[in-house]
Amino acid sequence: MDDGTHGRPVALVTGSSSGIGAAIAVELANNGFDIATNGTRAEEDSTSLSPLQATGARHVYIRADISRKSDRNSIISTLREEFGRIDLLVNNAGIPPPSRNDLLEMTEEGFDRVIEVNLKGTLFLTQLIARWMVELVSGGRVPEPRIVNISSISSYTSSTARGEYCISKAGVSMVTRLFADRLSEHGIGVYEVRPGIIMTPMTEPVRKKYDDLISGGITPLKRWGTPGDVARAVLAIARGYLPFSTGEVINVDGGFHLRRL
Ligand code: NAD
Fold it and tell me: In this structure, is residue 51 part of a structural domain?
């Protein structure tokens, strides 16, 4: 990925100590990126750390809760100090509701927390990084930075037992469109990767339910998605294989979004 003029590109992947984020970090590290990983734990989990170390890419872990303003500021100051640049932001951190409650019983506390992390954290981290990207582009330091938001099929699919999650992901889809529009004049592409049913720690508690839905044909491609499926879509964007697209949605869902008769 080093173009010989600008040096090795740098990617920040939020929520990358497990699941989809960890796979994205490794995929990018294997393809020429230096990586800043992020999570809320004091130290990076060894199960996600060793595959990343094996890539040989430069790697820094930033402990930060993206829902906190001071933590978002510390992400950017660490990036400035450690790498001095950012080429790719992957907004992956996300949480399910603290408990699955019917829409008629949804709590304000659960709603606030999910929105704070999935939507507000993503929005304001993007704002901070976008300002820096504009500076880097105008200074000729980084040629074509990009932003990828990991949303979900929940951004347009109703699940009445986790409405707050659906609402947060619908918001992430609009964040994608807004920043794609605003940053287009600076040559910064903004994309949304929309995963379907992916086997990760997040879906562990509902594995049986999804096993049954998949074998019943809910997805045209009858299998679980893997974190690697999502990571490869992010890599295609990171490599610049969608040069005349911005605000684009890439469905990584086994065809779930198709309407069938
Ligand atoms: P996961 O629980 O393994 O990963 C989520 C990561 O986000 C974890 O590493 C967690 O530590 C981190 N995180 C949570 N809150 C954070 C915070 N406040 N600040 C920083 N990091 C935080 O689950 P996953 O399935 O890999 O989910 C990754 C993303 O993909 C999420 O945004 C999720 O909504 C989305 N997604 C997942 C699926 C799926 O089926 N697994 C489907 C669609 C979308």
Answer: yes
* Neighbouring C-beta atoms of residue 139, cutoff 10 Å: 9
pLDDT bucket at 45, cuts 50 / 70 / 90: confident
| C-beta 149 within 6 A of ligand 1 | no
Domain of residue 85, residue span: 10-199+225-254
For ligand 1, what atom is nearest to the CA of residue 116?
Answer: 18
Contact 8, 33 (CB under 8 A): yes
> CA 38, CA 13: separation in Å to the nearest integer?
6
Number of domains in the chain: 1
What pTM, to 2 d.p., does this model score?
Answer: 0.98
pLDDT tens digits, 114-153: 999 999 999 999 999 999 999 999 999 999 999 999 999 9
Q: Which residues contact 217 (CB under 8 A, 6 or more apart)?
A: none
Q: Which amino acid is at 205?
A: P
CA angle 202, 38, 136 (to 5 degrees): 130
Q: Is residue 1 part of a domain?
A: no
Does residue 69 belong to any structural domain of this protein? yes
Residue 229 has a CB neighbour count (10 Å cut-off) of 20
Residue 132, both tokens: 């820096």
Most ligand 1 atoms within 8 A of CB, residue of 45, 69, 200, 207 to mutate: 200
Using a 10 angstrom Cβ sphere, with 0-12 exposed, 13-18 middle and 19 or more buried, the burial of residue 111 is middle
- Looking up residue 168, the CATH number of its domain turns out to be 3.40.50.720
Residue 214 lies in a domain: no
